[in-house]
């Protein structure tokens, strides 16, 4: 049942992504982030400078083929399968939904396209999958170089903005920047995009929760004695650092073992010492 829910959420995210592109961003020549933005740019370039045109959906699918193979080998089969489902579904809906201009106001297109697309991405991430493309590449590069994933997103998006500016004018590039900013803010509200997070879990079932986490996640846990100030009940606090992709699994582990546990998730600015990067 849980897997069915996850697939449904991924399909909803794909629909929202396709609506964002075909009804708002593509008609306005405003570009999304990551591989989606690259597919948009390539589609625009082939339409304007080549004797043929390849749609954004088909290009997005083609770009994700080598990434999917790499993700299968380097990241993990389960995560990659759900990412592939997301990419295939997005491609299907991009071909199904016609490209149609709803508004002539480029700012409205940039903002609403960014918000709708970001809701789709945020929901997909929240349910333990990704939209493929740059997500998978960034994870692999981050492990190899041990640098923040955000660096790679920033580099890729900077190239998209610069290319859009050179080819179609700097006004389009500035509106693309608006879309990227709005998208990142909405995704942060739905599901954090920070690479590493610190989880502090207050529970009365410390040993059971520790075992359940270690069965699913290869993460170190530090335990502290704790006491509830109101009832005076003895508890334990489990503190651990995880990646954003592990947040979905951690949430479900806690709900299964101790639904009454109190958990605080905070963004982690940096880590000194050993942190295992290959446990996705």
Give structural notes:
By secondary structure, this protein is α+β, with helices and mostly antiparallel strands. Helices cover 64% and strands 11% of the residues. The chain is built from ten helices and four strands. It has a four-stranded antiparallel sheet with strand order 2-3-1-4, with helices on one face. The chain is elongated. The model has no long low-confidence stretch (mean pLDDT 84).
State the shape: elongated
User: What is the succession of H and E elements?
Assistant: HHHHHHHHEHEEHE
Percentage of residues in helical conformation: 55-70%
- Main sheet specs: 4 strands, antiparallel
Into which percentage range does the β-strand content fall? 5-15%
Spatial strand arrangement across the major sheet: 2-3-1-4
Oligomer state equals single chain
Number of DSSP E strands = 4
Mean pLDDT, rounded to whole units? 84
Radius of gyration: 21 Å
Number of helices: 10
**Uncertain stretches:** none
End-to-end Cα distance: 22 Å
Structural class computed from helices and strand pairing: alpha+beta
Q: What are the key terms here?
A:
four-stranded antiparallel sheet, alpha+beta, 280 residues, elongated, 10 helices
Quick gist of this model?
Helices cover 64% and strands 11% of the residues. The protein contains ten helices and four strands.
Write the layout of secondary structure elements.
Blueprint: H1 2-28, H2 34-49, H3 56-74, H4 77-96, H5 106-126, H6 134-145, H7 149-168, H8 170-190, E1 196-203, H9 206-216, E2 222-227, E3 234-243, H10 247-257, E4 262-267
Antiparallel strand pairs: 1-3, 1-4, 2-3
Helix pairs in contact: 1-4, 1-5, 2-3, 2-7, 3-4, 3-6, 5-8, 6-7, 7-8, 9-10
């Amino acid at each position: 049942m849980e897997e069915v829910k996850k697939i449904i959420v991924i399909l909803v995210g794909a629909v929202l992504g396709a609506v964002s592109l075909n009804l708002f961003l593509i008609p306005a020549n405003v570009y999304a982030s990551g591989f989606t933005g690259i597919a948009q740019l390539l589609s625009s370039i082939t339409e304007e400078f080549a004797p043929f045109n390849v749609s954004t959906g088909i290009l997005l699918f083609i770009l994700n083929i080598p990434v999917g193979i790499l993700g299968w080998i380097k990241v993990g089969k389960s995560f990659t399968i759900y990412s592939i489902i997301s990419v295939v579904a997005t491609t299907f809906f991009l071909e199904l939904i016609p490209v149609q201009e709803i508004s002539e106001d480029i700012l409205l297109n940039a903002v609403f396209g960014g918000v709708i697309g970001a809701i789709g991405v945020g929901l997909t991430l929240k349910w333990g999958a990704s939209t493929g493309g740059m997500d998978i590449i960034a994870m692999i590069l981050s492990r190899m170089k041990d640098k923040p994933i955000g660096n790679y997103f920033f580099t890729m998006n900077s190239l998209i903005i610069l290319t859009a500016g050179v080819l179609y004018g700097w006004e389009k590039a500035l509106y693309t920047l608006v879309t990227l900013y709005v998208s990142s803010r909405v995704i942060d509200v739905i599901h954090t995009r920070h690479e590493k997070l610190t989880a502090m879990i207050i529970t009365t079932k410390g040993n059971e929760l520790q075992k359940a986490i270690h069965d699913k996640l290869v993460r170190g846990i530090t335990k502290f004695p704790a006491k509830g100030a109101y009832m005076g009940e003895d508890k334990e606090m489990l503190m651990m650092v995880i990646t954003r992709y592990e947040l979905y699994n951690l949430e479900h582990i806690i709900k299964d073992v101790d639904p009454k546990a109190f958990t605080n998730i905070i963004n982690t600015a940096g880590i000194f010492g050993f942190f295992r990067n290959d446990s996705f």
